[in-house]
UniProtKB/TrEMBL annotation:
SUPFAM superfamilies: EAL domain-like, Nucleotide cyclase, PYP-like sensor domain (PAS domain). Residues 296-428 form the GGDEF domain. Residues 212-265 form the PAC domain. PANTHER family: BIOFILM ARCHITECTURE MAINTENANCE PROTEIN MBAA (PTHR44757:SF2), DIGUANYLATE CYCLASE DGCP (PTHR44757). It comes from Rhizobium altiplani. The lineage of its organism: Bacteria, Pseudomonadati, Pseudomonadota, Alphaproteobacteria, Hyphomicrobiales. Residues 437-687 form the EAL domain. GO terms for molecular function: catalytic activity. This is Diguanylate phosphodiesterase. InterPro entries: Biofilm_reg_signaling (IPR052155), EAL_dom (IPR001633), EAL_sf (IPR035919), GGDEF_dom (IPR000160), Nucleotide_cyclase (IPR029787), PAS (IPR000014), PAS-assoc_C (IPR000700), PAS-like_dom_sf (IPR035965). Pfam families: EAL, GGDEF, PAS_4, PAS_9. Gene3D superfamilies: 3.30.70.270, EAL domain, PAS domain.
Length: 696
């Protein structure tokens, strides 16, 4: 007979309804004997949940459905009745060995007339798992938020904007420990001014309904300024009501911005001197040239270091760099605030000045030249340089930046042409001159194609027997309209445009061909431009021409000027030596007019020194000239070189130079440059040009 009898409300008649309610109740339940701990009755739900058979239950005690470690607690609880009338957490064992997490609820009852305990079980396994998952998820989210490389924070606006979230990155950005910030509001953490800024942002975010974003500079706790990029937005209230929380995401972009600033700086500045570069200069002039007015004019000065390449080549690039930096420093010292000094590249600088009167600009240019004429200290060695300056004014000379730059360039060209170390203002004629040069260049190309060049030959007389030593070949251009054009009018342009290479090769071939037909003792002198020395085909060309014409190398004399040494000595010297090696004679032309550095006389053994004609013309009037002339004879004999005096025009000059001991002479007195046929008539006429000239 089974049935329930409530301990304190015994019901004597067993009640079938209760029994069936117990059996079919969805909550697992059983009744056990607190003395023997044996199961007295187990309902269906319990049987299903635990999986033990009815026979099992008949043999088991309530300890058997507990894992070993829980049994002691159970015994204690039963004895002390502590698990009665309240829910208690337990772990139970199922028949298949799995564990269940349960809440049990114990109650004293009367069963079959004795005291028993009713246990009602609630299976919490799934609920617990779900809860665990929720809490796992929550802590995972927390850890994600904490490990985000951006600062994330949430403020509760109903609670004075107290922080309810403030991740690690936020802490790093502001320099505060996040722990101390949660629960605090801005006014406790930041200064008043900063707090006001944050408050204004928060209320904007709350009102905006969308994300607001901004970049701001704030002080970190240690006082260092940081640039933050922040977005803020109100988190929508779940019920669609007034938002309460403001979410913020901040990124420290200080480094990013400083890299950007550095890149922007580098794009607009010259790395060597730190001056604004060409791009920056172009920016300036584009902005300023069009707005220049007569009352508020703009002066553009182009400045170029004369012979900078020479310094770079002879002293090395480090010295060249040091020089440019010092030039930049001097320019910066001279300009006023608001004026621009830029390095356009190489040894080219530009200055943009706001000087109103032309006299002021002139004075400035003179000051510039003076400042730059003081020696530069290149590694402890004083180096003197000069500069050329071209000046164009807006709006006087040009109204837009392009024309202004072109005009300053023309003025600079003119300054260089007029002997360097000076300044020139732009003049309209310079444009015409540039156009003329441009036209000339095109015409020179044509001249070469159409064979408009010819060589004239000027006799060279040797003074030991007054006989003909040979000729110097001098180029002429027979222009269809302008007639015979002298070399000084087109050689410089041919050099500038590189056409000199082809012209020079033609001269060499033509001169050697003519000379090859002359008596074997006559020499032919050919002028070579410094540009030809920079071109690496020179040696091969000379060898080929000698080979083609059959001229003995000993009969060829190459005339070069000192400028060859101003160019690339490293390249010129071996080339000169190779030419000499072939048997060709090398003469130094226009001696005395160059840079008067005698070092190259030691570096290379010239076969001939040609004294420049300016010394010859001054010989009669200026006693100083005579001293130089004498010195040249001395140098010639010291270096074992033939000495020749050029530009002899009078008997008196000839007499003096003969007396000084020159070995050769050349000049109008002895013969002007003449056409080939004339030269050959002179050769075959047998008459000494000296005798012919002097009529004796
Ligand atoms: P240079 O090499 O010094 O040539 C001598 C110049 O002096 C020639 O001028 C000649 O006509 C001139 N001359 C000769 N005797 C006298 C005189 O008694 N009095 C005066 N006042 N002048 C005299 P030219 O032919 O006009 O040549 C000028 C310069 O052009 C030459 O100076 C030379 O540097 C260059 N040149 C001439 N032909 C060539 C050439 O084929 N190639 C190169 N690269 N340059 C050349
Ligand atoms: Ca010459
Ligand atoms: Ca000469």
């Amino acid at each position: 007979m089974t049935g329930f009898q409530k301990a304190f409300a015994p019901i004597d008649a067993p009640n079938d309804d209760f029994q069936s309610l117990f059996a079919t109740h969805p909550s697992p339940m059983w009744v056990y004997d607190p003395g023997s701990l044996r199961f007295l009755i187990v309902n269906n739900a319990a049987a299903d949940l635990y999986g033990y058979s009815r026979q099992d239950y008949a043999r088991m005690t309530v300890l058997d459905i507990r894992p070993e470690q829980e049994r002691k607690r159970m015994l204690d609880a039963v004895q002390a009745r502590t698990d009665m009338e309240r829910a208690e957490r337990w772990t139970h064992l199922k028949a298949n060995g799995e564990t269940l997490e349960v809440l049990t609820y114990g109650r004293a009852v009367r069963f079959d007339g004795r005291d028993a305990i009713l246990a009602i079980v609630q299976d919490r396994t799934e609920v617990n798992a779900a809860q665990r998952q929720v809490s796992d998820t929550r802590s995972m989210l927390d850890s994600i938020v904490d490990n985000l490389p951006v600062g994330v924070f949430v403020k509760d606006m109903e609670e004075d904007g107290r922080y309810i979230l403030f991740n690690e990155a936020c802490g790093v950005i502001v320099g505060h420990d996040p722990e101390g910030i949660i629960g605090q509001s801005d006014s406790i953490i930041f200064e008043e001014k900063q707090t006001a800024i944050f408050r204004e942002q928060d209320s904007r975010a709350l009102g905006a309904g969308t994300t607001i974003s901004f970049e701001e500079t704030m002080q970190r706790a240690d006082g260092t300024p940081r640039i933050l990029r922040t977005i803020k937005r109100a988190l929508p209230a779940p019920d669609g009501g007034v938002p309460r929380y403001v979410l913020g995401i901040s990124q420290d972009v200080t480094e990013e911005r400083s890299v950007e600033a550095r890149l922007a700086y580098m794009a607009m500045h010259d790395a060597l001197t730190g001056l604004p570069n060409r791009a920056s200069f172009a920016d300036h002039i584009q902005r300023e040239a069009p707005v220049a007015t007569t009352e508020n004019p703009l002066a553009l000065l182009y400045l170029d270091v004369d012979h900078f390449k020479h310094i770079n080549d002879s002293k090395g690039h480090a010295a060249g760099d040091a020089l440019l930096c010092q030039v930049a420093g001097r320019l910066m010292q001279l300009v006023a605030d608001g004026d621009l000094v830029a390095r356009l590249g190489g040894d080219e600088f530009a200055l943009l000045l706001r000087l109103e009167r032309r006299e002021n600009i002139e004075r400035f240019a003179e000051r510039l030249l003076r400042s730059l004429s003081a020696p530069f200290d290149l590694d402890g060695v004083d180096e003197h340089v000069t500069c050329s300056i071209g000046i164009a004014l807006a709006p006087e000379h040009a109204e837009d930046d392009d024309v202004l730059m072109r005009n300053a360039d023309l003025a600079l060209y003119a300054a260089k042409e007029s002997g360097r170390s000076t300044y020139r203002f732009y003049l309209p004629e310079m444009r015409l001159e540039a156009e003329r040069r441009h036209m000339l260049t095109a015409e020179l190309h044509e001249a070469l194609l159409k064979g408009q060049f010819e060589l004239h030959y000027q006799p060279i007389v040797q003074l030991d027997d007054d006989g003909l030593a040979g000729f110097e070949a001098l180029i002429r251009w027979r222009h269809p309209v302008r007639g015979l054009v002298p070399p000084m009018e087109f050689i410089p342009i041919a050099e500038e445009t590189g056409l000199i290479i082809q012209i020079g090769e033609w001269v060499l071939r033509e001169a050697c061909r003519a000379a090859a037909a002359w008596p074997d003792h006559l020499k032919i002198a050919v002028n070579l431009s410094v540009c030809q020395f920079r071109h690496n085909s020179l040696l091969a060309t000379v060898v080929a021409v000698l080979d083609e014409t059959g001229l003995r190398p000993e009969r060829l004399e190459i005339e070069i000027t000192e400028s060859v040494f101003l160019a690339d000595v490293e390249q010129s010297l071996p080339l000169l030596r190779a030419l000499k090696e072939l048997g060709i004679r090398i003469a130094i032309d226009d001696f005395g007019t160059g840079y008067s550095s005698f070092s190259y006389l030691r570096a290379f053994a010239f076969d001939k020194i040609k004294l420049d004609r300016s010394f010859v013309s001054g010989i009669e009037t200026d006693p100083g000239n005579l001293a130089i002339v004498r010195a040249v004879v001395g140098i010639g004999s010291g270096f074992n070189a033939t000495t020749l005096a050029e530009g002899i025009e009078t008997e008196e000059q000839l007499r003096k130079l003969r007396a000084e001991g020159f070995s050769e002479v050349q000049g109008f007195l002895l013969g002007t440059p003449m056409q080939q046929a004339e030269a050959e008539a002179l050769i075959h006429g047998g008459a000494s040009p000296l005798l012919a000239a002097t009529g004796s």
